[in-house]
Amino acid sequence: MADRSGAALAVRGGARRPYGWLVFLGGGLLLVTLHQLVPAGAARDVIYVGVGVLGTVGVLVGIRLHQPQRRRAWFALAASQLAWVLADLVGTVQDAVAPTDAFPTAADVLYLAGYPLLGLCLFLLTKGRRPRRDVEGALDSLTVAVGLYLLCWVLLARPTLDESADSWLAAAVAAAYPLLDITIIAMLVALIITPGTHTAALRMIVIAIGLVIIADTAATALGLLSLGSTGPIDFIWLLSYLLIGAAALHPSMRTLSAVAPPGRPVFSRRRQISTAAAVLVAPGTLAVQHLLDVPPDIWAVVIASVVMFLLVVARMNVAIHQIGTADRRRDEAQAELAHQAAHDSLTGLPNRAQSLELLEGTLSRAQRSGAMIGLLFVDLDGFKAVNDTFGHSAGDDVLRTVGRRMQTVVRGGDVVGRLGGDEFVVLLEPVVDEESAVAVGERLIAEVSAPIRLSNGEDVTVGASVGVAISQDARTDADALLVEADTAAYRAKNRGRGRTEVFDAGLRRELQTRVDLEKGLRSALWQNQLQLRFQPVMDLTTRRPLGWEAVLHWSRPGVGVVAVPDFRPVAETTDLIFDLDAWALRRAALQIAEWEAAGFGGVRLSVRVSVRHLGRSRVLDDVRTALQASGTPAQQLMVQVSDLQLVDDPVVLDNLAQLRAGGTGISLDDFGAGHSSVRRLARLPIDAVKLDGTLLDHSSKAAEGLLELMVRGVQNFGLMTAVKGVRTEEDVDLLRRLGCGLGQGELFGGLVTDSEVLRQLAEAAVHS
């Protein structure tokens, strides 16, 4: 805990002093300038050593201030600077106390000790920036180092050894300087070409070490190593001290050794240039020596060339291996992507597109061989209840378990696929007859219906309704067979669920009828063949209409009137229901406006809207468009939804609430026809309830008592209450006795046209 707090303090401290490194660098440059202006002597020497001390202290302060990721690297850098500062101090004292031309001296020991420490710093920084074991980086660095060593040997080390032949120690130390410089250069190149961010701190370190190398090379070339630091070379060495300290004080030093971000190219342009330049050193050296008529150093060139050749070959092998690995990973990724594109991510089964593709291939083979294939459409029963009760994660558990169980039932060559939601298909290839396919369906139902243990420890049970379709001839295609199996599964659900149904001739006729109805309904919608008819909602006391219900009316050319129960369920299974509802809303709103123009304002009209439509955001736009186009007040339009369809879907309830907030009334129809709950009314955003006509039962006191409970229950929530299916005066008397003042049914007339509504409105106005 203490370490993390310290790091946080250091970061905040760095944030408070973002320009401290500039102050440091500016002050140091003043000292360096002063050093150049002060005459030779003690004061000049003190300033020289002081600048070195300043640079070393700057590194230590930067470590404390910024808490870098690789602290050991920075401590090694501080140690190298300290060694050189001590060497400067020893040399200065030696020149002042006992001047000598001897070489090497004690100062040289400290100077040479600073190089390994600087090399350790560069090694640790480079290691930190590498995201993995960087074999190629090491080979590239070694190649550059060999080229530099060759250049150093030819230009500096060999001539120095020749001039110091009288003393092997002097020769070794003299040669050590350029060789160590070359080592530092190689390690610096390794740091530069390692992928990673090039921060300001890194740039300053590179410049500082470059200045050290330039100064060392110049000193070596001029034979000044034993004479102390004088002239322009002093200026260069002092600048290196300052830049090292400024780099450590810069905030970017904290992330200088950070691992390179993924995706950065390993073999960058910098590596290409540096490696190519190193390889060209050997032939370039021979060419220059030949042009200058200097005896060539054959063995040095040969050895360096062989080593670089071996390093380049090794680098090529690494590159070839990396290319092979990249190709293999690419192929694996492509295979994985192809699998993901063709399979359901939850169950691992073939998805809809892949299932249809497999079905098409199977049908093609069956057509050539003359075999029959079977397709089973499996629709889970009770799955939505699991989702609503235990959540979507529980639903996922169920789907995964069902997928595994279904695979255990079928044969090895059969295919189980998931179409989406709670729908699966099973492809049987081949199948002997319908009975064998039905037998598979029954086994699937038994296996799926076994209790399922959820991940939270709960046990749940779902069922399955199975539809079977058999390919009978070569003309069957995949889409048609899927529709046939789906239709059979739909009948299995309608006949009680948990059973298997076969797509037979009767279903084929029903399917053809449904297809024909859907086609005709689409045509009627766009050719303006639809109309609205109206039925009044009556005040049972005054016998005057308090509102009207709009009902779709379709007079199909060549067929006649098509009843709503015949065509609306067909529309409910397709997206056609959205357009149908939108048309009814627009026409109803326009009708209200027409009655308003005729002098009968305030008429309230209700329109049936599908729950599927209410589950889409477009229902809000459809209602808004209908009201705006007609200029009808929202309070005069009422959206009517069937209690048999309404579920506690948050989207549906939210859309109903938004419609109601905008002024549109919401009426719940068919209440009491199914498993209705009066308590449920408390959380529904509705204004009115229409009780189902089946509750009007005079056969017993118990039946009347049930109706009374329903009426009282609805009224207790402050909702307008009406009862449908009023046929007789006896029904009216019963409702009035129970306190229900509104009714709708045959007693008050059937569906009428808009002109008949106008007549009734005029008649009611005369008697008012």
Automatic annotation (TrEMBL):
<dbReference type="Pfam" id="PF00990">
    <property type="entry name" value="GGDEF"/>
</dbReference>
<dbReference type="Pfam" id="PF00563">
    <property type="entry name" value="EAL"/>
</dbReference>
<dbReference type="InterPro" id="IPR001633">
    <property type="entry name" value="EAL_dom"/>
</dbReference>
<feature type="transmembrane region" description="Helical">
    <location>
        <begin position="137"/>
        <end position="156"/>
    </location>
</feature>
<feature type="transmembrane region" description="Helical">
    <location>
        <begin position="105"/>
        <end position="125"/>
    </location>
</feature>
<protein>
    <submittedName>
        <fullName>Diguanylate cyclase (GGDEF) domain-containing protein</fullName>
    </submittedName>
</protein>
<feature type="transmembrane region" description="Helical">
    <location>
        <begin position="235"/>
        <end position="252"/>
    </location>
</feature>
<dbReference type="InterPro" id="IPR035919">
    <property type="entry name" value="EAL_sf"/>
</dbReference>
<dbReference type="InterPro" id="IPR043128">
    <property type="entry name" value="Rev_trsase/Diguanyl_cyclase"/>
</dbReference>
<feature type="domain" description="GGDEF">
    <location>
        <begin position="371"/>
        <end position="505"/>
    </location>
</feature>
<keyword id="KW-0472">Membrane</keyword>
<dbReference type="InterPro" id="IPR029787">
    <property type="entry name" value="Nucleotide_cyclase"/>
</dbReference>
<feature type="transmembrane region" description="Helical">
    <location>
        <begin position="273"/>
        <end position="292"/>
    </location>
</feature>
<feature type="transmembrane region" description="Helical">
    <location>
        <begin position="46"/>
        <end position="66"/>
    </location>
</feature>
<feature type="transmembrane region" description="Helical">
    <location>
        <begin position="21"/>
        <end position="40"/>
    </location>
</feature>
<feature type="transmembrane region" description="Helical">
    <location>
        <begin position="168"/>
        <end position="193"/>
    </location>
</feature>
<feature type="transmembrane region" description="Helical">
    <location>
        <begin position="205"/>
        <end position="229"/>
    </location>
</feature>
<feature type="transmembrane region" description="Helical">
    <location>
        <begin position="298"/>
        <end position="320"/>
    </location>
</feature>
<keyword id="KW-1133">Transmembrane helix</keyword>
<feature type="domain" description="EAL">
    <location>
        <begin position="514"/>
        <end position="765"/>
    </location>
</feature>
<dbReference type="InterPro" id="IPR052155">
    <property type="entry name" value="Biofilm_reg_signaling"/>
</dbReference>
<dbReference type="InterPro" id="IPR000160">
    <property type="entry name" value="GGDEF_dom"/>
</dbReference>
<keyword id="KW-0812">Transmembrane</keyword>
<feature type="transmembrane region" description="Helical">
    <location>
        <begin position="73"/>
        <end position="93"/>
    </location>
</feature>
